[in-house]
Every structure is written in C-alpha cells, then in structure tokens.
Design goal:
By secondary structure, the chain is an alpha/beta fold. It has one domain: 3-Layer(aba) Sandwich (Rossmann fold), CATH 3.40.50.2300. The protein has five helices and five strands, in the order E-H-E-H-E-H-H-E-E-H.
Length: about 130
C-alpha cells in the first residue's frame, strides 16, 4: 500500500485551506495546515513534507519570504512548492521557479500539480533533505 503524501497548506484564508485540505484528504493525503508563514516556518524547517502549498500574500511572514527561508535552509523542500495566489511569484534569477496556480483555482488542477511534484520526487536524491 503506498504511503500517503504529506502536504503542508499555508493560507491566511480559512476557506481556501479548507477546500485544499478536503480535496487532498479525499485523495489519501495527510494534510497539515498553517494560517500564515510565521506559523508554518518552524514546522517546515523540522518536518517531513512531500509538497507545500502556500499563498503568496499573507500577514506577517509572506509566502514568498517563507519560501526564501526554506530555500536557504532546505533547498530540496523549496523545489516541492506550489504557490496558489491571485498574483504570480516574482522571477527567481538563480534557480528553478516554484510552481504557480492562479486564484481562483480549480482544486483538481492543484491536485494534478501535487501529483506531478510527487512523481518527480518519488526516488530520494543524494542531496535530499527529507
């Protein structure tokens, strides 16, 4: 039996978190949630997650600032990131661009992106931080 994907959802809008969590749990994922980047940071620095879904614009530590912190500390996790936001993330001049899904989003479209990231990362790489 395959191991459930561990997905971390970070969004300051409870309705968005609820939709994403319900969609992912219905597909067998283990979902953890945070209402902002500050709340998510410690868990992302120490936990084991297959995919992170984050809003960009949040109070306190924004999604972009959170991603940059994770990129410095856990680069492999930063490559398993999906931004779900009304505006696209800024360009990344020195590395891969994170995945982006525009709000309003189709939950099935987000699920397809999660599956794509999971498929790319099924076999651990030597530089994996998981």
């Amino acid at each position: 039996m395959p191991v459930a994907l561990r997905v971390f959802v970070v969004d300051d809008e409870p309705a968005i978190r609820r939709i994403l969590a319900r969609t992912l749990r219905a597909r067998g994922c283990t979902v953890l949630e945070a209402a902002d980047g500050t709340e998510a940071l410690t868990q992302l620095l120490t936990g084991d997650y297959d995919v992170v879904i984050s809003d960009l614009s949040m109070p306190g530590l924004s999604g972009w600032e959170l991603w940059r912190e994770i990129r410095r500390a856990r680069p492999a996790l930063a490559e398993r990131w999906i931004f779900v936001s009304a505006t696209p993330p800024p360009p990344v001049p020195d590395g891969p661009q994170p995945c982006y899904v525009a709000k309003p989003f189709d939950a099935e479209g987000v699920w397809r992106e999660v599956q794509g990231i999971a498929a790319r990362n099924r076999s651990p790489r030597p530089d994996s931080d998981r």
